[in-house]
Design goal:
Nucleotidyltransferase, domain 5, 15 strands, alpha/beta, 5 domains, 18 helices
Length: 512
């Protein structure tokens, strides 16, 4: 149907710009008869519709259910093997008794029906069938406390099996490739096999490009992971979460049943093992849609029987990469969002990195570990390990103030170092490195603050204050005078020490 905007353009081109009917038809891509109709039109009043006007029946009505059936079945067929309007018209002529409709009538209905099916695909026109051994994967988000630290809206990976409605989850700090691969491997190893195929979203963690025609370009690491475990990755159509509705439902179910109340634990790896066992126990219930009222655990045995065997060689899920440090020996990851320290020995150099879901390990060119960081997520912007810096400057303490290390130190630590004797600075820095290694940089800084308070600038006093603060060494109680304690006798020595020397010599001789 021609819109009023297009009708306006047609009339403006003719009456305002003196274009011919043929020129206008070419510009607007319309038949010239349509152009003539609107050029000559004089009545633009809108005819009022009657509310009681009955819908006209169509000659095509008896055949619409058959057309609908063919178009719905097309959703399973390859794109190039789906019905066109011409093919529908031809099949109706060949297969439908009494069919006597024009192609235009069929084409109009097929176009409208295809549009309707695209818009309403989430309403479940096509029930998907799943076979034993097939799985779906997706991330959800939830809070948890690890060792007292809140991880707000952290991630958890769910692997569900639509055939049995079984499923497992693993808590993660984020949604990067390391979290995905580590979680999948943990679940593969727990169930003793690998799904034949796994359905995924088009997450940027995996998919680098959606190719016209339905193909996917995936990252090299993910492709190697799939080849290693021999499963087939299946990707959903964009904005088509309904296609993997089983895992979408499982994400919510497991959050409500396994992550409520908010989990609190000491170590993530231990908690994840407990969650796998809890998911096994959850399968001891009836399947919601099984005609024989079988338990999920029973159906899951059929899933397990169809799994691929685990490979003989484990897959290294870590990321190995490099990073360039700045003048302070620091580098950034995650597009500059998170910053880590390496060592002052590696200022403005490339360092090798070994990255897991929980750690960032800095290595030298010989792959020897330099420093190890807890991997940062969310709003944690920087991880600083002071031990390499303090040890480095302890070897040449006179250069402290001219080094970048001095500028990075907290103000109180700079004040303390300024008050130390030059000869003591190297030993003080070694003590600070030792304290940092024992219980963290904050404990060393607290000890420094106490040393400033007591005006103690030597390394022995620094260590003594640390022990008193962090090693439960109580201060010695004061001794009150009592009658049981003998009084000290004051002895006055003569000013002439020669007499004292004579006495000492004599006593030494008599004792000898």
């Amino acid at each position: 149907m021609t819109s009023m905007d297009q009708i306006h353009r047609i009339r403006d081109l003719y009456y305002g710009q003196d274009k011919s009917l043929t020129e206008i038809a070419s510009i607007e891509k319309l038949d010239w008869r349509t152009v003539r109709k609107y050029v000559d039109m004089e009545d633009f009043n809108e005819s009022p519709s009657r509310p009681d006007e009955e819908e006209h029946s169509s000659k095509l009505d008896p055949f619409k259910p058959l057309i609908d059936k063919w178009l719905i079945e097309d959703k399973k067929a390859p794109r190039k093997q789906r019905h066109t309007a011409k093919r529908v018209h031809r099949r109706l002529k060949d297969e439908a008794e009494g069919y006597d409709c024009s192609y235009r009538l069929v084409a109009t209905y097929v176009a409208e029906k295809k549009k309707e099916l695209r818009l309403k695909k989430q309403e479940g026109y096509l029930p998907l069938e799943h076979h034993p051994g097939e799985a779906q994967a997706d991330f959800g988000y939830a809070d948890f406390y690890e060792n007292g630290k809140l991880h707000h809206e952290a991630k958890y990976l769910v692997l569900s099996f639509p055939y049995s409605n079984g499923g497992y989850l693993q808590l993660n700090y984020g949604e990067n490739m390391e979290c995905l691969l580590e979680g999948l491997v943990a679940m593969f190893e727990y169930i003793g096999g690998v799904p034949t195929e796994i359905w995924f979203d088009n997450t940027r963690t995996i998919v680098t490009e959606i190719i016209k025609g339905g193909g996917r370009e995936v990252t090299d690491r993910f492709q190697r992971f799939c080849e290693h475990y021999r499963f087939k990755p299946v990707f959903m159509n964009p904005e088509s979460g309904w296609e993997k509705g089983n895992v979408e439902n499982k994400v919510g179910y497991l959050r409500r049943n396994e992550l409520v109340p908010v989990p609190r634990f000491e170590q993530l790896t231990v908690k994840n093992k407990e969650l796998l066992i809890a998911c096994d126990k959850d399968m001891e219930r009836e399947h919601y849609d099984d005609e024989d009222d079988r338990f999920i655990s029973e159906l899951f045995q059929e899933d397990k029987a169809a799994l691929l065997p685990l490979p003989s060689v484990p897959f290294d899920t870590s990321l190995y990469t490099t990073a360039k440090t700045d003048k302070y020996g620091k580098f950034t990851l995650d597009a500059g969002k998170h910053r880590y320290s390496a060592s002052p020995a590696f200022c403005e150099e490339a360092v090798r990195l070994h990255i897991t879901s929980s750690e960032v390990i800095v290595m030298d060119s010989d792959l020897h570990e330099v420093v190890r960081h807890r991997r940062l997520y969310g709003d944690d912007h920087e991880s600083m390990d002071w031990i390499p810096y303090l040890r480095h400057i302890a070897r040449k303490p006179r250069s402290l103030k001219n080094s970048g290390i001095y500028d990075m130190m907290p103000e109180n630590m700079r004040i303390y170092m300024d008050g130390c004797e030059s000869k003591d600075r190297g030993r003080v820095l070694k003590v600070l490195a030792e304290l940092t290694e024992r219980s963290g940089f904050e404990s060393a800084l607290t000890t420094v603050n106490k040393a400033i308070e007591h005006q103690a600038t030597d390394p022995d006093s620094l260590m003594s204050l640390y022990r008193r603060t962090y090693m439960d060494v109580p201060p010695l109680p004061s001794i009150e005078a009592s009658e049981a304690i003998p009084k000290m006798k004051l002895i006055m020595f003569p000013s002439d020490l020669m007499a004292l020397d004579a006495v000492l010599v004599k006593r030494g001789a008599s004792n000898g």
